[in-house]
Amino acid sequence: QDPDSMGNAAERLLGLSPEQIQELSKDILFGQLRLVIAMMTIEEINSDRDKLLENISNNVDTELKKIGLKLINVNITDIKDESGYIEALGKEAAAKAINEAKVSVAEQEKMGETGKADADHQAIGKAEAERDARIATSMANSLAVRGENEAKITIANSDAERREREAEALKLATAAEKVQAAKALEESYVAEQKAEAARAERERSTQNANIVVPAEIAKQKAIIEAEAQAEKIRLQAKGEADAIFAKMDAEAKGLFEILTKQAEGYDQVVKAAGGDTNSAFQLLILEKLPELVKTQVEAVKGIKIDKVTVWDGNGNNENGNTSTANFVSGMMKSVPPLNDLFNMAGLNLPSYLKGK
């Protein structure tokens, strides 16, 4: 079906049971059927069945579309009225057909039976008179029936309008209920979302209290301990540096005192030498002479000679010495002389120590 019919069905038939829909369709069908019959003459109804079917189909289909239904087919099996007028019209038509057939036969037979034709004509006249009487009666009855039908049509239209309004009210009530249910569901969803958000915030706060806060405390503790350790190391290093500085300062002061005393001693030596620095130098060398001699002696002290065997043939060398004397003399010459030792040190041995 088209969208309009589906929309009409949703508006008019929503909430109705199949029996209620069938009853509503039946009322519309009979109401439109009465309306079509009231709009046509009895002769048209009896003679023009196609027009009758067309009018019924158009009117009924139009009204059914208003509630979302569609007319599929219309069939008329028979038409009767309480007065028998329609039946009389049928008989009249049949009689006309018969008479026309008889007239045709009579004409074909060259009107051979004139008397019979007159009798038939009289019968036809009588039938026509009866027909006119019955027509007049049927017309009166039809007017009465038409009035009744119009009244019934008015009642049917009123019932249809009432049911239409009831269906509209039911539709509005159903729609309002659905709207309220949707709003309630929406509010429920909003409340659930707020509850979930609150639960998530509570969970986040719990996690923050259980994890973040202890971690932050541990972090601050580690920072404080590290700063304390660093301060301890700085103080320890400063103490060690101060100790080293104090030690070196003491050593420097001690060395300064030693050098100062030595300088004062050297000054006294120079004064004792009558201001002659060379004589003062010789005095200092004289002071160190025992150590120098000791050093020279130490050079040969470590030589171990367990046994010396001399084979001497009592022969003399060119210098008149024996081999043994030459050996001892050469060994003594191998020890650095004291004068050479002073020369290597950049000093001059006094002449009275040179043996000259």
TrEMBL record:
Residues 225-326 form the Flotillin C-terminal domain. InterPro entries: Band_7, Band_7/SPFH_dom_sf, Flotillin_C, Flotillin_fam. Residues 17-110 form the Band domain. Its main location: membrane. Keywords: Cell membrane, Membrane. It comes from the Eukaryota. The keyword Amino-acid biosynthesis does not apply. It holds the Pfam family Flot. The keyword Isomerase does not apply. GO terms for cellular component: plasma membrane. It is found in: Cell membrane. Belongs to the band 7/mec-2 family. Flotillin subfamily. This is AGAP012884-PA. It comes from Anopheles gambiae (African malaria mosquito).
